[in-house]
Amino acid sequence: MKRKVMKWLFALCVPVFIIGMILRDDCVIPVDGATPKDWNPQSFWYTPWGRSGVHKGIDIFAKNGTPVLSSTKGLVLYSGPYGMGGNVVWVLGPKWRLHYYAHLSDSSVSAFKLVHIGAPIGRVGSSGNAAGKPPHLHYAIRSLIPLPWLATTQVQGWYRMFFIDPNTRLRVGLSST
Ligand SMILES: [Zn+2]
């Protein structure tokens, strides 16, 4: 009986996994009106960086209250306070990638809602450990599937197989639109 259940679960997981992988992964810059000039391309994997050691995303600077947009279509997994990130939103997007939006002044989506690409999910702020710093969106893309070819010999370089460089990702997005 138990084996049968496992078999069914497996039969269900495989198509769900495949659907996730084949969804188109279009993306937009997740701050309304922002251009690549609003972040430093060198800031991804910058070290030393506070308590986390390495900066695993980019910081897109904008005025306090500027709308933060979902960079992809996806499913909101979490929206609310989250440690050093302050007010954050986690969105599960195509290809089993988690998109992380941090230091928001507030978020305007709730968990388990589907969002479109470019949909407003909150506003730029300086919550969490960005308190006292110029308002910015910390944006990171985590891959749930290890991508070993992204690993490097940098500090925490092995861990890079779980992180997409948002900088290149967003530039690709720009050139294809
Ligand atoms: Zn940051």
Automatic annotation (TrEMBL):
Boundaries of every M23ase beta-sheet core domain copy: 54-142
Any one GO molecular function term: metalloendopeptidase activity
Pfam families: Peptidase_M23 (PF01551)
Highest taxon above the source species: Bacteria
CDD domains linked to this entry: M23_peptidase
PANTHER family for the chain: PEPTIDASE M23 DOMAIN-CONTAINING PROTEIN (PTHR21666:SF268), PEPTIDASE-RELATED (PTHR21666)
Protein name per UniProt: M23ase beta-sheet core domain-containing protein
